[in-house]
Design a protein that fits this description.
two-stranded antiparallel ribbon, mainly alpha, 319 residues, 2 strands
Length: 319
């Protein structure tokens, strides 16, 4: 089981580590280059870093802006050898940029304290919820059960985008930065799920419906669909699923993955499954040969695009 192993990437593994010696009051405030390097290496727990105690708010507003830009430049300069968005370095960078942004946008120490306290409390609540993630219907097969638990966590972490409770009552600055802080959880979970699935599929090829059941096929597909940070894996899985005999996997989900891969490669989608919400309505991105879109969808057992738009608008755009 994941057990939130992936969350160590964004700082939890260093929660007990003593702060770096350069974390000193102004005028010896930690240099942006050092902050970036320590965050990247895991020596500094960015989620617990106390910008007020370190003297950040004794800097002038101009100095704080300059420091923040220096941190961003350091974090973005990870070198050509770091490619995968799932690498430890890239994940730590994401967390460091989120918290450097929160500090940089705080107008003073009081603003920082209120914002950091609120976001940290919500993150703790989110972590607790994710530790309890479980499928509605467990499986007696240990491998399928592990897959279903991971899928449940995959779905639970995405509630940060749709449930208003996560930002309810937050100070404005905390609400504006909630997603940038919380998305580190989703990244860690997605990356861990991708690595787990890659390893398992080397042995079983796929969680086919006849052998493992519809729920397993659905769960595995979702993990592939959310493996956007590993596009080569998504492309390989699309080829694998296309090669399966009829009935081994869902045609509807195959169409969704086709569109996901096409969009990632800068191509037009084929089945109209990828789109965006605006003013409570979901609209698909442009598709190839739009006049025959419904015919292609019907061939995979998908509903007409108009019905799909209504359903997604109702389920995903009304929050």
């Amino acid at each position: 089981m994941l057990g939130l192993i992936g969350l160590a990437v964004v700082g939890h593994a260093t929660a007990q580590t003593s702060p770096p010696p350069a974390q000193a009051p102004h005028p010896g405030f930690i240099a942006p280059e050092a902050f970036g390097e320590w965050a990247r290496s895991g020596e500094l727990n960015v989620e617990a870093y106390d910008f007020e105690a370190a003297g950040f708010f004794k800097l002038s507003p101009q100095e704080r802006t300059h420091w923040q830009m220096g941190v961003f430049n350091t974090l973005l300069n990870v070198g050509p050898q770091v490619i995968s968005e799932c690498s430890t370095v890239r994940q730590r960078n994401g967390a460091a940029m989120a918290w450097a942004q929160i500090a940089g946008q705080s107008k003073d120490a009081a603003d920082w304290k209120a914002t950091a306290k609120t976001i940290r409390a919500r993150l703790a609540e989110l972590d607790q919820m994710l530790r309890r993630s479980a499928p509605a219907k467990p499986s007696a097969d240990p491998l399928v059960q592990e897959l279903l638990v991971r899928f449940a966590r995959d779905q639970d972490v995405r509630l940060i985008f749709s449930q208003v409770k996560w930002t309810e009552g937050m100070p404005p600055l905390a609400a504006n930065n909630w997603l940038s802080a919380a998305v580190t959880r989703m990244t860690a979970i997605d990356c861990d799920n991708t690595a787990w699935l890659q390893a398992r599929l080397q042995k079983i090829d796929w969680f086919t419906i006849p052998k493992y059941g519809e729920a397993a096929d659905n769960a595995a597909w979702h993990l592939v669909q959310h493996a956007d940070r590993e596009p080569a894996f998504q492309r390989a899985m699309l080829a694998k699923l296309q090669a399966l005999p009829p009935g081994e996997t869902s045609g509807k989900r195959l169409g969704m993955l086709w569109d996901r891969v096409a969009r990632a490669e800068g191509k037009l989608q084929r089945y109209g499954t990828q789109g965006l919400c605006k003013d409570g309505q979901w609209t698909p991105y442009e598709s190839e040969d739009p006049a025959n879109l419904d015919k292609r969808r019907a061939a995979l057992g998908m509903t007409p695009i108009a019905e799909h738009m209504q359903a997604v608008s109702r389920d995903a755009c009304m929050h």
